[in-house]
Amino acid sequence: MNDFIFHNPDKVYFGKNQIQHLPEELSKFGNKVLLVYGGGSIKKSGLYDTVTKLIKDAGMEMFELSGVEPNPRHTTANKGVAICKENNIDVILAVGGGSTIDCSKGIAAGAKYDGDMWDLVVNGVWVTDALPIVAVLTNAATGSEMDAWAVISNMDINQKIGLGGDALIPKVAFENPEYSFTLSAYQTACGAFDIFNHVLDNYYLAGDSTFDLILEFQEAVMRAVVKWTPIAIKEPNNYEARANLMWASSMALNTVLDAGTVHNCPCHLMEHELSAYYDITHGHGLAIITPRWLTYILNEKTAPAIYRLGVKVFDIDNGLDAMVGAENTIKAVENFAFNVLGLKKNLSELNVDDKYFDDMATHATIHGDIVGLRTLNKNDVKKIYEMCK
Ligand code: NZQ
Ligand code: ZN
Fold first, then answer.
1. DSSP 8-state secondary structure symbol assigned to residue 169
2. Mean model confidence pLDDT for the chain
3. 184 CB burial (10 A radius; 0-12, 13-18, 19+)
4. Cβ burial 250-274 (10 Å sphere, 16+ → b, else e)
5. CB–CB of 284/343 below 8 Å?
6. Distance between CA atoms of 130 and 345, rounded to whole angstroms?
7. Residue 300 phi/psi, 5° resolution?
């Protein structure tokens, strides 16, 4: 296992009766709040009314940026930056899913930068100065509520890139599983697969020796997703199911599960290209790629790790030959994605053709070969896209 530093300063209020702490937390940063949200789900659910009343009753001054897109655009982040600069905003309040929180992170960084915030993204700047962010989470998926990353898209040039920095970790996050009751079955499924893959993408990568405690933690998070997602889909108001998924979302990327491991994310690097070119839902792209990636990387060396996933997460018999066990594991992942979650299996069903596979493979490997259970070069990535057609 590798040496590691663990430091996550995000304060999380988890549960049903926590939102009343919002004004006291916001006011620690000042009086002027920029409320950021998406296409309107928080208005339908009533969360918008709850939050704005708390802010107004506390005598704070509120500004708004609405309409953050799934796969948030740099242009929208720049609009938020302008509001912050014109009005000397003290704190950004993101209310929504990963896209809203990511866009808020882009705004928070851009507010401290003189120029187009896309410069920060494309130049890979590690953000150390940003406005403080408070997040109210409505979708269990990305982990943005507790992590240091934002993924921002520039659709003019088909680029979707991560912007990272210590300063982007929300200062406070409110996680009430009830806020996710209104999610559609489709978004629940996509979010769940995203969580599952955040863990799987970094599974068994503990340097030159394994770190059993972390493997067990990772497996517990993946097991929770496999167990509770079908329940959340059938019973959207099931608090226990939503709570398990919400905390799994935060645990998957708040670096607890990275301890002593290598964090690289092969499926994520491949999926971000699909969303950059075709604006598809992130978790769905991952569901299509993941079983193909597992199939592609399966060999004598990787079989034991893949088989362990099957035994620990999908209850596959532990007395099999490693190769047979690994093949059964891949079938179990496929069954989870396409039968249990009901997601479409092929890129063609999402209107994705093979026109850009070569460009996407080039971008996905732009920083070099992708390290993982098996290292992937550009040609490997292209072959995996072909398998997803
Ligand atoms: O925009 P609104 O109206 O809010 O509707 C959203 C959106 O249409 C809706 N939704 C969210 N919460 C809801 C709800 N609808 C009803 N009830 C609720 N409670 O769901 C749709 C999708 O929302 P979005 O925020 O786009 O989904 P998600 O949370 O999956 O975020 C996806 C984005 O995060 C990035 C993805 O690439 C994608 O751009 N990621 C961010 C990461 C990070 N910051 O670390 C890591 C991830 O791997 C990922 O790349
Ligand atoms: Zn993801």
1. S
2. 96
3. exposed
4. bbbbbbbbbbbbeebbbbbbbbbbb
5. yes
6. 40
7. -55, -35
Ligand nearest, relative to CA of residue 137? 1
3-state secondary structure 22-47: HHHHHCCCCCEEEEECCCCHHHHHCH
Protein residues near ligand 2, an ion, with CB under 5 A = 194
70 Cα nearest atom in ligand 1:
26
Taking a C-beta distance cutoff of 8 angstroms, is the pair 191, 140 a contact? yes
Q: Over the stretch 144-196, which tens digit does the pLDDT of each residue have?
A: 999 999 999 999 999 999 999 999 999 999 999 999 999 999 999 999 999 99
Instruction: List Cα–Cα distances, 119 to 124, 126, 316, 355, in angstroms.
Output: 8, 12, 48, 28
| Strand-pair category, 159-164 with 32-36 | unpaired
Q: Which of 47, 65, 76, 99 is the best mutation target for the ligand 1 pocket, counting ligand atoms within 8 Å of the beta carbon and taking the most?
A: 99
pLDDT tier, 110 (very low <50, low <70, confident <90, very high otherwise): very high
Whose alpha carbon is nearest atom 50 of ligand 1? 151
Residue 144 CA: which ligand 1 atom is closest?
44
Please state, in angstroms and rounded to a whole number, the distance separating the CA atoms of residues 210 and 260.
9
> For residue 98, how far is its CA from the centre of ligand 1 (angstroms)?
4
Instruction: Determine contact, residues 106/48, Cβ cutoff 8 Å.
Output: no
Q: 2-15 in b/e burial notation, b at 16+ Cβ within 10 A?
A: eeeeeeeebebbee
Element (H, E) at 243: helix 239-253
| CA-closest candidate to residue 142, choices 190, 106, 94 | 190
Q: What is the C-alpha to C-alpha distance for residues 246 and 88, in angstroms, rounded to an integer?
A: 33
First to last CA, the chain: 37
Q: In terms of pTM, does the model score above 0.85?
A: yes
Six-digit token pair at 389? 């057609």
Amino acid 364: pLDDT? 97
Q: Cα torsion at 377, 378, 384, 388 (round to 10°)?
A: 160
Residues within 6 Å of ligand 1 by CB: 38-42, 45, 70-71, 96-100, 102, 138-139, 141-144, 147, 149-151, 179-180, 182-183, 187, 191, 194, 253, 268, 275, 282-283
Q: What is the widest separation between alpha-carbon atoms in the chain?
A: 66
